[in-house]
Design brief:
5 strands; five-stranded antiparallel beta sheet; 19% helix; elongated
Length: 140
Amino acid sequence: MSRKGNKLLLLLFTLNNCLGGALTDKGGAIININHSTSATIIRSEEYKTLGESEGESSTYYLLGLFPVTPPLNIDYAMSQAVQKIPNGSSMVNVRTWIESHYYFPVGKVLVLKVKGQVIDLKQSLPLFDDPISKKDIKKD
């Protein structure tokens, strides 16, 4: 390989490292991993699994110190994942993690990722705002 090719290769590797591996690495350094059985309280086993989905929320730190965008929001990430699948109500087998991507010297980005099974909760009990029929009312 020529000297010019070596310099170009070295420049590309240096640029990639300064961007936090953004050119070659899809993910970033993982900071925090969590697993939860469900996103909301589920009082019944009567639900239908619709499929797996993923959502995310991110925040950007200028120079790695000063937050420029709104903070990480797990509720937003979960709602984004549920909305991707039609008729989704909640999530089970939820996994969350935070990736950090460094873009030297510009700053860093933290990305909160949520992944799990989206479910459709079946209404096994009548809704509270449904009118009560007269036959259900006992007379004393």
